[in-house]
Amino acid sequence: MQVGNITNTNYLYQTGSAVQSKTECSFEMSASIEKIDCETEGEFLGITMIPEEGQSMVYGMRAMLPKESTASNPIVQVVSNLEGKYEVYNIEINKIDPENATRMEMFALCSYEDKFGEGTGSTFGSFHTFRVYEELASQNGCTKQIKEYDSSWEQFQNEKVNWVELCNQVCESLKNSKDTEILDLFVKGKRLQELYSKYAKNAEI
Fold it and tell me: Are strands 25-26 and 160-161 parallel, antiparallel or unpaired?
């Protein structure tokens, strides 16, 4: 994954004060996710792509706000067409725990926050900031994969990560940079931290 137009990102991150601990991962089924037969009428929120290694075609998935979503019980539908398979998932936003969440859950959460919260202010949406921070953490060895997956989609759907810890590690490494673009990324990371804190305290276990 490319990191936008950020220059010298590898150098700046590797020479920062990165935390050495590894981000914990787990694989239990998320309580927030329910697979359903078909999507319902709703409002488009966002889209993301999941490239599969060794394949030229890139499949996308979109986040939708279904009509049954309410302010007290927000729901985001994630609709996938991976490999031509139509799949729809309802994700209850209030049940997402950023300290133990899948990428699919975080895509739904970021899409919802861009619509109804403040998000990170990124031109490409909060989930773009999320993916940049994930890539930076991976480059610095702050994440570890403890299970092999057959596809990027399977990992996107199932692997749980402590995104709060990961974001904290990247922010710590970027905070002393004098590069204006890196500092802008640091500010967006602080906004990610604020977004996570809204849900990490209230997620239903």
Answer: antiparallel
Long-range contacts formed by 86-91: CB under 8 A, 24+ apart: 86/38, 87/35, 88/35, 88/36, 88/37, 88/38, 88/39, 89/33, 89/34, 89/35, 89/36, 90/33, 90/34, 90/36, 90/66, 91/32, 91/33, 91/34
Q: What are phi and psi of 74, to 5 degrees?
A: -70, 140
**What letter would DSSP give residue 147?**
S
Query: What is the per-residue pLDDT across 138-192, written as a single tens digit (0 to 9) for each?
Result: 887 666 655 666 778 888 989 999 999 999 999 999 998 989 999 999 999 999 9
**Rounded Cα distance, 141 and 166, in Å:** 11
Q: What is the dihedral of CA 168, 173, 178, 180, to 10 degrees?
A: -50
pTM over 0.85: no
Q: What kind and span of H or E run contains 50?
A: strand 42-51
Spatial separation of the C-alpha atoms in residues 8 and 177, rounded to whole Å: 11
- What lies within 8 Å, CB to CB, of 162 at 6+ separation is 23, 24, 25, 98, 99, 100
Reported as a single tens digit per residue, the pLDDT across 69-123 is: 999 999 999 999 876 788 999 999 999 999 999 999 999 999 999 999 889 988 8
Identify which of 15, 62, 16 has the alpha carbon closest to the alpha carbon of residue 43. 62
SS3 108: helix
